[in-house]
Design goal:
7% strand, extended, two-stranded antiparallel sheet, nucleus, 306 residues, mainly alpha
Amino acid sequence: MDVTEILEAHKAQFKPITVEKLVPLDFDLSLLAGFDTNALDDKRLKGTKEAYLKEMTRDNVQLVVNGIFELPVKTSDHGILAELPDRTTVLPREKPLPKEKPMTRWEKFAQTKGIQNRKRERMVWDDDRQEYVPRWGYKGGAKDGTQDWLIEVPNSVDPMTDMYQAKREEKKERVAKNAKRQKRNEEEGAAATMAGKKDVRDLKKDELQSAIAASRTATASMGKFDKALRNEQKVKGVTHQFSSNIGDAKAEKNSSMDILNKIVGKDAKVDVNKAVRMHARDSAKKNFSKSNDKKSDKKFNKKQRK
């Protein structure tokens, strides 16, 4: 049985892996990219655009894959891997290079004196426990003394005092004090944020300035003869603008007409419901006062009869 025709038909379904180009592609296999500089076929581009672009894309991808298979390989736990070369294409930066930060006074001093920062290790050896413990924080170097097997009693303390209990009470007070400080800092930070300030320091500075301004006007002369402080800011008061008594009669007439038009003019807005409520309230007051007058007259007449 001759299966040559069947094999040829099956082979014809797949395109060959060899692709010929008039101008070879420029590869940057580090980015898994290839750049085709060949001219496009205008006739095929105008006639069968989609098919032409798919065929050209397939050929270029095949060339990139062929270039990857030509690279040296190495074996690892994940299988056989290709060693990519160094990058040849330089991509532009999205943003400019950051400026160098100026050195602080301490950095300049350390540079002139040759001081180098040495990072201390977090874990240190504890001779009492015979183990490594953190230098700071929980179970760290800030020992509370409650784990010591012997605590010396000072001369100023009663000899019968339980020093372990005293250490525990001292630690409780210290923890409560730190919690109180943390809560105060959070409240001050929230107040500064609500006031639109950068931090608590700016908020307290403004509060101090307002307190100084209020104290200046607390004297009998309203701060007129008080000595000004150094670098003290002037308090900006509220300025009122008054029109002159002698002026243009026409302008005064126009302003009066504007006020009148706002009240009873065409643009005036009258709340009917509010007017009805006010009228009902006034009438109720009048009726109540009349009824009280009649009751008082009746009482007065009864007393005269007696």
